[in-house]
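Forum: Protein Structure Q&A
Topic: Joint prediction for protein chains with partners

I've read a bunch of threads here and the consensus seems to be that you should model interacting components together rather than docking separate models afterwards. I'd like to see that in practice. Below is the full input, 853 residues plus whatever partners are listed. Could one of the regulars post the assembled result?
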Amino acid sequence: MKSAELPPNPDPVLNQPITPELIKKHGLLPEEYDQVCRHLGRTPSLTELGIFSVMWSEHCAYKNTRPLLKGFPTEKRGATAAFGRVLVKAGEENAGIIDVGDGWAIAFKIESHNHPSAIEPFEGAATGVGGIIRDIFTMGARPVLLTNSLRFGELDSPVTKRLLRGVVAGIAHYGNCVGVPTVAGDVYFDRSYEGNPLVNALCLGTLRHDQIRRGKATGLGNPVYYVGAATGRDGLGGAAFASKELSAESSSDRPAVQKGDPFMEKLLIEACLEMMAVPGLVVGIQDMGAAGLTCSTCETASRGGAGIEIELDQVPQREAGMNSYEVMLSESQERMLVIVQKGREREIEEVFAKWDLHAAHVGTVTDTGRMVVRHHGVVVADIPATALTDNAPVYHREARRPAYLDRTSAWTPEGSGLRDLDLEGARATLPRLLALPTIASKRWIYRQYDHMVQHGTVVLPGSDAGVVRLRLGSSEKFIAIKNDCNGRYCYLNPRRGALIAMVECLRNLVCSGATPLAMTDNLNFGNPYKPENFYQLKECVEGLAEACRYFDVPVVGGNVSLYNESPEGAIDPTPTVSVVGFIEKEAHITRQFARAAGSRLVLLGGAPTELGGSQFLGAVHGLKTGDAPAVDLDGEKRLQDYLLGQIRKGRILAAHDLSEGGLLVGISEMLFGTEKLGAEVDLSGLGSLRMDALLYGESQGRVLVEVAPGDLADVAADASLSAVPAEEIGTFRQSATLSVATSIGTLDWRVADLRSEWESSIERAMKRPGLG
Amino acid sequence: MKIKVFVTPKRNVLDPQGVAVGHALESLGLKGLKGTRVGKVVELEVDGADSPQLRSQIDKLCRDLLSNPVIEDYHYEIAGG
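Posted by a regular:
Agreed with the consensus. Here's the joint model:
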């Protein structure tokens, strides 16, 4: 079918013929361009080419990952009519929503802003926070907390320091100004992220079931409003840009970085929530994130099974002389698209006038199924809405197992003649590991964040998971939230690494006294066109899905960030997971810090035995090899159920899961609370073939708990009933030392020395010369 | 010799500070305001004379330290050289 050509665009620049170079510059393949022509029944205008280019990018269309993501469970099997139902599923809307009982629900989602942060760390990270907050309040929810998941290169390079400084300051600036607390996070430093940092930001909001709003355009003749900040030439083509590898040329992509205004966002939050609280006023609402006006119009039209017509002359503009291509693709921040009930235009205009924000009537809902854009009255784009969304191309990419896996998975300490630690080596290793930026206290980072605003934060950053009190009408509920993903494990064994990310995250929540509820994931990978990268992606997604199904933790939303590569190669695969848990009673909230002298230290799960992928191997032997630690899902489930049971019985004073750095790092971290305790530990009864694996290995499914002497017998008896290995390994003391008896002799450290290594490592690295 | 470096937000970049100051000016009664941009001035006092070498050094310092070339423009004036 041949459709009529569009009239010439008012801006002559946009009437140039579409050449193969232009198509390539827009990131479209020749066959994709042919599909565009088929959808339109003619050749596209340049404006339309730009629109297709952003909507068919990985960032918007998930064209390389959609078939994989279908494997995620999106519903909770154990949900009841009163609790735990998924009210809005992953992929349906801007964020998923899950029922937390009494007519209340939470909306949460994580999203990446990796590429903008690599180019301009401060604004890139800040607008990442702004974008994810909009994804939450567009659902009708009030944002109550933020977390972030960051990955950088090793902290010894000046480039990494600049990125870390900028990203943290950007997150702090936006979050602190907008008044939403940053309550938790995770940060890893590894060479593979050099020059391609990962900045994943999460927002969680609360709402009543009847406040849920959808991004749907329905109702013929309903007016379409543009609200919020004016449109400028910022972030042109950001979504397409996020789907390209970073190269030396990226610095010339610089105008693609947007700048945010958190005070504007705060006004927008309040105005939108006020408007949505008026019954029947808002038909649909969506934020303008990546691909701005383009994405919000075609997605709302496509979801509503309707069409939309807009006139760009009505769009508030910050700069004169913008053409249709620029207005449609601009990624100016703090803007939303709202579909209003016909006849009630004045009501919405009054709300936005009160908050000093633009509310412009830019268009109308139609029944044509087409997105029609006019500029100065001339049609500049006319596209079937579904061609941009549901009918975007989908690819099944080739996956090939990377060759390096044969070498790394065959590695064993014995096979490579790795000498075990002697007493002096074992002693020297602990402070060294505690000072590794990946393990060390992240105080330098989180002290820049306002984690107390809104008054709900119960467990501050620095413990296993953040815990927040939600005020829901007249009632209060407690949730815990935690992010996790060790990219090193995912590099060595993608499927198992992803499993570990999930089970460790769940274990962290359980250690805080929470029952895991639902998760959101951010898949950060390299270029999917390279079969080795796609293999990692596929295996990781399958690993996550397996863990989600096993633990009945549905995925309620997420984000995919591909093309995370720098000239050195792809990043370690990093499927970051973030799980929200529910805490029944305030008394169940548990922290990782030991509380009382005389209480006992119990190790659950047995002695660690593996070295593969450990921080120890990396820091002491310079190796990133071996297989990722084994995961026993049944054992993990038994452990977590048992631990939660003991916490609810009030027998657990503190709980801390073993992760990076292993047993001694875990014990040390328990001593770094406010009580200034020491501990006397005896590991000589634990069987392990190697001292390094016992002390510093990272075997999964291990938790340290502090138990009062009077509860010890009950804790042990229940453990044996639940078939969970439990070993009393020491006693907390009112002393200044940590002493550990082993089969090769006794190790002693001053707790204050360990603490100072752990606490000030990042601060020392980030100190600026000449500033005290 | 005095060097005055002017750093301003790029024309295409949002300037929230400028917008806020503009709002305040209007509320204090300034009529007909079309736009407000806020930047900064860095004053340097340096021994020596104006030279191409000095200018290329100043340019480098402006790009690397005094301005953020991703979102800011700069220019400078040299007086008394």
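DSSP finds 26 helices and 28 strands in chain A.
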